[in-house]
Design goal:
With 439 residues, the chain is an alpha/beta fold. The protein has twelve helices and 17 strands. The chain has an eight-stranded parallel beta sheet. Helix 5 runs parallel beside helix 6 and helix 5 crosses helix 12.
Length: 439
C-alpha cells in the first residue's frame, strides 16, 4: 500500500504555490437553473428528475471556453464536478446509463474538460461526490440492505474509470462521504437512521485511495473521503483544522450566499467583487489556497454577475498576481482573526517582501505598526510609484506620498520591502503609551 505521507510535500509543492483555482459545479441540474441540489431540496421523484438529463445539451465549445476563462481569471488549476449528489456522471461509465454519453450530451464531457484544461497549461482537478441520492438504500438502509455494498462498489468502479481514462489527474476533490441513513445537505426534516459505521470504513476509503495512488502517483487527495489525506477544505469561511497549522488547505467559496454551487437563474444575494478579493487574500495570507466557484448554465456558459466578477478578478490578478502566487505566511498572523495593520488591509509575503492589499484605503500617510523588522522601501504596485518611508516612535513606520485616490484596479496593493522576513512584534505593559516601546 502506498504511504501518502512519504512524498506529500513534494506532491504539494505546485499546490502551495498556485494559490488560486477555479471550481466548476455543472451537470444536468444546470438546465433547471435552481442549483445543484434540486433533486433533494425540491423532493423531486427520480422519474421526474431523470428526464432533465435529456434536456442537457452543452455547447460544443464549452470546455475550451471555460478553460480560457479560468486561465484569464488567473487560476492555476480547475476542478469540475464529475458526479454530484444526484449521481449523474459527466463521464463514460459502465456502471449505469445516467451519464453524459447515454443522455442529452451524447459525449464524454470529462474528456473534453481534461483536454481543454491541459491545453491552457493548467492542472486538472476532478470533484467526486462519494454518496449519491439515487439509491433507495441511502435514505432507508434498513429497508434496502442489499443496496449498501452496491453503492460502495459503484463508487470504486467509477473512481477507477476516472483515474484510468483521462490522463494525469492532479487533484481528486471528494465531497460528502455520508453513510446511508445520514442527513445530507438540503435534507431538512429528514429523520436520520444512520448506520453505525465510520464513513471511511463504510466506503472503504483507504482501499480506494491506495488504488488511486497506484494509478495516479502524483495526485493530491482532499480530506472528504473520511480520511485526512493531503489537504483540508474549509467551505465558505476559514476554519482551520486544530493542531495542523502547517497542513495544506484550500478555501472553497461561491459567489452567492445561498447554498447553491450550480447555476442559478437570477441570484439576488451575491458577494461583491471586493468581497471575493477580500476572501481570497484572507485565505492566502494564512497559507491557504482560494478555490473560486462558478456554475455554468445548461449549455456551459458562465453568464451574468458570475462572468462580470470573473473578468474583474482576472484584471486584478493580472495587475497584482505577484501578491498572491507563491506567497507564504512569515509570522505576521497567528490566527484567522484580524492582525497588525488590519484596519488598512491584509499582507501576503514572499521572503522579505510584503504586499498589503488596501481594502480600507487611508488618507496620506499610512502607518505600519506591530510588524518588524525595519522597512527599506515601499511603492504602489500598479503604478510603480515610490513612497516615502520614515521610522517613528514605538517601532512604527510612516509611509507617505499615497495617491489621493486608490489606484486602479482596486483594491490597490502596496509592495513593502523589509530588512528580513516580516513578523509580528510582541509587547506587554504600558510603555507604548509614552512612545517608549522598543522592538
Amino acid at each position: 500500500m502506498v504511504d501518502p505521507s512519504v512524498d506529500r510535500e513534494r506532491r504539494l509543492e505546485w499546490f502551495r504555490k498556485a494559490k488560486l483555482g477555479m471550481f466548476v459545479h455543472w451537470g444536468c441540474y444546470s438546465v433547471l437553473g435552481r442549483g445543484e441540489q434540486i433533486l433533494n431540496r425540491d423532493m423531486m421523484p427520480f422519474d421526474e428528475y431523470a428526464p432533465v438529463a435529456d434536456e442537457f445539451k452543452p455547447d460544443p465549445e464549452w470546455a475550451p471556453r471555460l478553460a480560457r476563462q479560468a486561465k484569464e481569471m488567473g487560476a492555476k488549476y480547475v476542478a469540475l464536478t464529475t458526479r454530484h449528489h444526484d449521481g449523474y456522471c459527466l463521464f463514460d461509465t459502465a456502471t449505469h446509463d445516467f451519464n453524459a454519453v447515454k443522455t442529452g450530451p451524447g459525449r464524454d464531457l470529462i474528456k473534453e474538460f481534461t483536454d481543454a484544461v491541459r491545453a491552457e497549461g493548467m492542472k486538472v482537478g476532478l470533484y467526486y461526490s462519494v454518496h449519491t441520492w439515487r439509491w433507495h438504500g441511502f435514505w432507508d438502509p434498513e429497508g434496502y440492505p442489499d443496496e449498501l455494498p452496491k453503492m460502495v462498489d459503484e463508487m470504486h468502479a467509477q473512481l477507477e474509470e476516472l483515474m484510468t481514462n483521462y490522463g494525469e489527474i492532479s487533484v481528486l476533490w471528494y465531497d460528502c462521504s455520508h453513510v446511508p441513513g445520514s442527513s445530507p445537505p438540503g435534507s431538512s426534516g429528514y429523520q436520520q437512521n444512520r448506520i453505525d459505521v465510520d464513513n471511511a470504513e463504510f466506503w472503504r476509503s483507504a482501499e480506494i485511495n491506495a488504488r488511486i495512488r497506484e494509478l495516479q502517483p502524483r495526485i493530491l487527495i482532499n480530506n472528504r473521503s473520511g480520511l485526512p489525506e493531503d489537504f483540508g477544505t474549509p467551505e465558505q469561511s476559514i476554519k482551520l483544522e486544530e493542531g495542523q497549522e502547517n497542513r495544506a488547505w484550500e478555501l472553497c467559496q461561491t459567489l452567492n450566499y445561498a447554498p447553491n454551487w450550480g447555476y442559478l437563474h437570477a441570484s439576488q444575494a451575491d458577494k461583491s467583487f471586493g468581497e471575493v478579493v477580500y476572501n481570497m487574500i484572507s485565505a492566502v495570507r494564512l497559507g491557504g489556497n482560494f478555490l473560486f466557484n462558478v456554475g455554468p448554465d445548461g449549455q456551459g456558459h458562465i453568464v451574468g454577475n458570475q462572468l462580470a466578477v470573473l473578468k474583474q478578478l482576472g484584471r486584478w490578478m493580472q495587475a497584482y498576481g505577484e501578491a498572491v502566487y507563491d506567497t507564504a505566511p512569515t509570522g505576521i498572523y497567528e490566527e484567522p482573526g484580524q492582525g497588525a495593520s488590519y484596519h488598512y488591509g491584509m499582507l501576503t509575503c514572499s521572503g522579505s517582501t510584503a504586499y498589503m492589499t488596501l481594502f480600507y484605503y487611508p488618507p496620506d500617510p499610512l502607518v505600519i505598526s506591530r510588524i518588524g523588522p525595519g522597512i527599506r522601501s515601499a511603492r504602489m504596485l500598479a503604478t510603480g510609484e515610490e513612497l516615502s518611508v520614515e521610522p517613528m516612535r514605538n517601532a512604527r513606520w510612516k509611509i507617505s506620498g499615497l495617491p489621493a485616490e486608490p489606484p486602479k484596479p482596486a483594491p490597490p496593493v502596496m509592495k513593502i520591502e523589509f530588512d528580513g522576513p516580516p513578523h509580528l512584534l510582541k509587547y506587554s505593559g504600558a510603555k507604548w503609551l509614552d512612545g517608549e516601546y522598543k522592538a
